[in-house]
Amino acid sequence: MIDDIRRIAAAATDRIAGAATLDELGALDRELLGKTSELSGFKRQMGGLDHEAKREVGGALNAAREAMAAAVAARRAELDAIARRAQAEAERLDLTEVRAGRDAGHLHLVTQTIEELEDVFVGLGFTVAEGPEVEDDWHNFTALNFGRYHPARDMQDTFFVDLGAEREVVMRTHTSPVQIRVMEGQAPPIYSIMPGRVYRNEATDSTHLAVFHQLECLVIDRGITFGHLAGTIDMFTKAYFGPGWNMRLRPAYFPFTEPSAEFDLQRPDGSWLELGGCGMVHPNVLRNCGIDPEEFSGFAFGFGLDRLAATKHGVTDLRELASTDIRFLEQF
Ligand code: FA5
């Protein structure tokens, strides 16, 4: 009997080691170690044996079960490892493939527009500056001559960030705070543009986004006049759109410029688009940045980049610029 048990166990461990799949191994486990297995049959026959023989057969049966269970566990570990390797191989990311995909793609229309305008202005001797999108009250409002309780603060619906003192940290509502950072950081003459993303707590529609882009332009030098401002806006719109596009200035109010104007763009079909605001930098703003308004004057303007790009490319709904629809994005 004991020889039979050992023979069965040896044959079983060979079969277990040869199991090719986890399913096959599970079936073998049930067949060789389950209630109806050959080994269980021996257990039932033990009833007729004397005490000593029972002990020996029982020991052999236990040893056989342990050896077979250990073989099942060992084979299961091997098959698990093989399955994991196969899965890892199947899910492997081919980084060269991703890279090829990127090379085949292109920049978003808004990014292309920023780069195009940077080229226009850099060609005229302007530098490009950047500032943080999370701003403090000083740069976004106070240094720009917005009094703490001035109603003009409501012109731009502000997202406040829950950091520091109440209403002290904001998502910048325009790119004008970068003017302050540039003037705080360098002495005139200043000829800079500042493109970037801005945030307003606004309901979105075809001409309004809550997250959009502006480009700010700041010039501070001796003898700068409103004529330089109008000429610069006219120059860059013609450089970007080509001849046939006109601009007009309308009187407006911004706390940080005086006088102030809004500028509109006329499409070749004659219709007008409100593009941005502009004006001569307010003396208070110059003083806030340590610049003497008796010695220097300057102009600033800021406009909506998304509106500019949409107008040139015939996009009728700004929300499409924020979409991830590849059929839309691939057109540009
Ligand atoms: C400003 O943001 C001023 N900082 C502009 C300025 C700069 C004035 C320098 C004077 C000197 P305004 O809120 O009007 O102004 O916004 C400027 C332009 O941003 C708008 O004319 C429009 O083209 C664009 N814009 C404003 N709100 C949105 C919006 N929700 N979605 C898309 N574009 C917008």
Protein model, in words:
With 332 residues, the chain is an alpha+beta fold. The chain folds into 2 domains: 2-91; 109-329, Bira Bifunctional Protein, Domain 2 (BirA Bifunctional Protein, domain 2, 2-Layer Sandwich), CATH 3.30.930.10. 46% of the residues lie in helices and 20% in strands. The chain has 12 helices and 10 strands. The strands form 2 sheets. Strands 1-5-6-10-9-8-7 form a 7-stranded mixed beta sheet, sandwiched between helices. A hairpin with a 5-residue loop joins strand 8 and strand 9. Helix 2 packs antiparallel against helix 4 and helix 6 (109-123) crosses helix 11 (305-313). The model has no long low-confidence stretch (mean pLDDT 91). Adenosine-5'-[phenylalaninyl-phosphate] binds at residues 156, 174, 176, 200, 202, 208-209, 212, 214, 216, 254, 257, 274-279, 300-304, 306-307, 318.
Keywords for this entry:
12 helices; elongated; alpha+beta; BirA Bifunctional Protein, domain 2; 7-stranded mixed β-sheet; 332 residues; 3-stranded antiparallel β-sheet; 2 domains; binds adenosine-5'-[phenylalaninyl-phosphate]; single chain; 10 strands
